[in-house]
Write a structure and sequence with these properties.
Layout lengths: L3 E2 L10 H7 L1 H4 L10 H21 L7 E4 L2 H15 L6 E5 L4 H11 L4 E5 L9 H7 L4 E7 L11 H10 L3 E5 L18 E5 L10 E5 L25 H39 L3 E3 L10 E6 L4 H10 L2 E2 L15 H5 L4 H5 L1 E5 L6 H20 L6 H4 L1
Parallel strand pairs: 1-11, 3-4, 3-5, 5-6, 6-7
Antiparallel strand pairs: 2-8, 7-8, 9-10, 10-12
The structure holds 4'-deoxy-4'-aminopyridoxal-5'-phosphate.
Length: 391
């Protein structure tokens, strides 16, 4: 059976070149960066090189501004708890948005129970953070504004530079969760007023279990993991050498391929979206039509459940999802789709296709060939469907 993978936000294949770069670090290049001998030096050089590559991907001024972590979740925790714990002298107010990943939502919720005041900004119908609300809510007591670069579920890209200007006008730091965006769209931390930026290796064809936090020099944070003082005291624990090498290689490849791949994927994405809304009545795009990740196609179909669509597509060999992998275990509709104003039933009728390097125009044609009849069949058995749509 033909299998088409369109769930890249849930997990990506590791690029062959990344795997090749990593392999010697499992069996031969096995030094610990803290060791004084040849093997230690070799490991130090490898980590330095990877750090530079990650720094280059996001336009950091110095490689020392990159801290390796275990992934996006840890980077988000380190940024938010790190700022909160270190800047209590200035204030206890944190501003975030209503469409963040659960690793930001639940970190803020935790801090809210421990003396911090959390404000969650609304977004418009496309998922763009409400800038006027930010201007209204920010005070001299605000220590951090945390918003994502782009939303992995609806694809919307946020006005980060403007958000950063407002944060800085009150002396607050700006943290950006760029896990969904990095490697797909150009990011320039210096130009975009970013103080802290979270990255995850697997979201750019690197291995799982490794990520990074960019911390601009002068940004005051405390560590959340204590121990041997690795990563300049900000992330103790023996460095994940092979993972770091892999993430560095993945960042290098992403930077080199970004422009061409973004153009290719955007073309496929737009063809896909147009095909769906043209062919299927009462189907709609979720998220912004143009300020959108090249890989992201999120569409909703009135009167039916996303879950039954996923199962029907899976039987035809197509893998997609109903939203974030992190919330798909619960039956709750996605908080992101509710935040852009969808009713519960519309949020439940949404499907997320995330495209990747291996997807082709043929794949899009194949899925567009299947979807109309699947939607029609499911609508025919749904009690919600108006009669005229069934016949
Ligand atoms: N932020 C966003 C936007 C994500 O999509 C994810 C999941 N890939 C994370 C954070 C968490 O990253 P990780 O799974 O590497 O902890």
């Amino acid at each position: 059976m033909r299998r088409i993978y369109m769930d890249h936000t849930a997990g990506m294949p590791v690029d062959e070149r990344v795997l090749e770069a990593m392999m010697p670090y499992f069996t031969q290049k096995i030094g610990n960066v803290s060791s004084a001998h040849f093997f230690g030096n070799e490991a130090r050089r490898a980590i330095d090189e990877a750090r530079s590559k990650v720094a280059e991907l996001i336009g950091a001024e110095k490689k020392e501004e990159i801290v390796f972590t275990s992934g996006g979740t840890e980077s988000n925790n380190l940024a938010i708890k790190g700022v909160a714990n270190r800047n209590k002298d200035k204030g206890n107010h944190i501003i975030t948005s209503s469409i963040e990943h659960m690793s930001v939502v639940n970190t803020c919720k935790h801090l809210g129970k421990h003396g911090f005041k959390i404000t969650s900004l609304p977004v418009d119908k496309y998922g763009i953070v409400d800038i006027e609300a930010l201007k209204k809510e920010i005070t001299d007591k605000t220590i951090l504004v945390s918003t994502m670069y782009a939303n992995g579920e609806i694809g919307t890209i946020e006005p980060i530079k403007e958000i950063g200007e407002i944060a800085h006008s009150k002396g607050a730091f700006l943290h950006v969760d760029a896990v969904a965006a990095a490697g797909q769209v150009p990011i320039d931390v210096q130009d975009e007023n970013i103080d802290l930026l979270s990255l995850s290796s697997n979201d750019m064809y690197g291995p799982r279990g490794i990520g990074a936090l960019y911390k601009k020099t002068g940004t005051r944070i405390l560590p959340i993991i204590h121990g041997g003082g690795q990563e300049r005291g900000l992330r103790s624990g023996t460095e994940n050498l092979s993972g770091i090498v892999g993430m560095g290689k993945a960042a290098e490849i992403a930077k080199a391929n970004m422009a061409a791949e973004a153009e290719r994927l955007s073309r496929l994405r737009d063809k896909f979206i147009k095909g769906v809304v043209d062919k299927i009545p009462e189907s709609y795009l979720n998220g912004h039509p143009t300020k959108r990740l090249p890989s992201n196609v999120n569409v909703r179909f009135s009167y039916i459940e996303g879950e039954s669509l996923i199962l029907s597509l899976d039987m035809e060999g197509v893998a997609c999802s109903s939203g974030s992998a992190c919330t798909s275990k619960t039956l709750e509709p996605s908080h992101v789709l509710l935040a852009i104003g969808l009713a519960h039933e519309d949020a439940h009728g949404s499907l997320l296709f995330t495209l990747g390097r291996q997807n082709t125009e043929e794949d899009i044609k194949y899925v567009l060939g299947l979807l109309p009849s699947i939607v029609k069949r499911l609508r025919a058995i749904s009690p919600l469907t108006p009669k005229e749509l069934v016949t």
